[in-house]
Amino acid sequence: MKKRSTREEGQFDLPLLGVKAADISAEALFDTWLQHQRPPMAASTQRVYRTLWRRFLQALHEHQKQYTQIQPTDIRDFLSNLDDVRRPQRERYQQVIARAYEELCRQDGRSENPALAPAINDPFKESWRQAPDNQATQFLSVEQCRATIKSLCHRRRVLELATDMTVATRWREYRDMTIVAVMLATGLRPVELEHLHPSAIRATQVGVEPLSDGQADEDEGMALWRDGSLLISLSGVAKRDVRVPVWCDEMLRSWLIFSGLQDAGAWVKESRVFPGSRQISAARPQAQMNPATLARIVSKWGIKQMDLLMTPQRLRNTFGAGLIERGFSLPEIEEVMGYAPGAASAWRLQAAWLAWLQAQKVVATSLTRPSTQSD
């Protein structure tokens, strides 16, 4: 039986190092970069990156330019002429092009990457970034965040003492509550939470003082965000360690004990901290939660417990806003949130948070302004 190739359709063999870049196919060059990534990129991500790179090559061909001989202004003009492409997608094009030229520099021995020149890589001034943004970033206010934390802590006490629930109902509510808590407390991406294995959570030697009932009302709630004793170690492209704050520490520990996940002897490769179902069966063979289920869990909990519209991304945004409010620098936010270095994501988050705060002030002012109309 003929062995089937495992290569992606349209994928080229790696060119040999030392071959001059001018003699290398532009798509083979890009594949070299893709295949050198560790850990390997998902096949779907590779397809997206190839699509973006090929559109850039097509534009060069239309302007009769060679990819080995272009100037930063050529890349800037390409980005500026991406009609109907929003700013975040334009920035993604720029990042993909920059990474392709990293491989070109490696192959050809040149030192300057044209896609990273000052004419392009300035998030404050360049006209190519002047495109419509995605839908406005949403947050919970500081007061809503603090109220949500109090509600989560109260709900945990209720579930610990509950005797009028079935095992399945109590398990589901415990899981859903802890999902909302962990997303708000650590800012994990949805995909990171879905894939989270119990082995990624470990205890450290940090001493943690229990929170008193009144501490949730301290000025600006700083006590809530002291480091707890649990650490979440994330792998992959956004590899980092995330400290669980003290208010979520006991909640996560409680869930691990309740679900039996504190026993390392019971772990298997497919184990997840937040599985999609309590019992694996032929009808529900997957332990891993899918994105649609996660979105429903967060939305349902927000409406039922807080009468608030919540999404996984809104909880992550709120965590990031909390870092800003507590005085973290942009590089520190970049590291904690797992943003790609130099992608201006932390700067955009800060700008979105400040704009959101200003919009809330405008709304509040309009609601409190006395009417000028006569009775």
TrEMBL record:
Keywords: DNA integration, DNA recombination, DNA-binding. Residues 24-105 form the Core-binding (CB) domain. SUPFAM superfamilies: DNA breaking-rejoining enzymes. The keyword Disulfide bond does not apply. Signal peptide: none annotated. InterPro entries: CB, DNA_brk_join_enz, Integrase-like_cat_sf, Integrase_recombinase_N, Tyrosine_recombinase_XerCD. Coiled coil: none annotated. Belongs to the 'phage' integrase family. This is Site-specific integrase. It comes from Alcaligenes ammonioxydans.
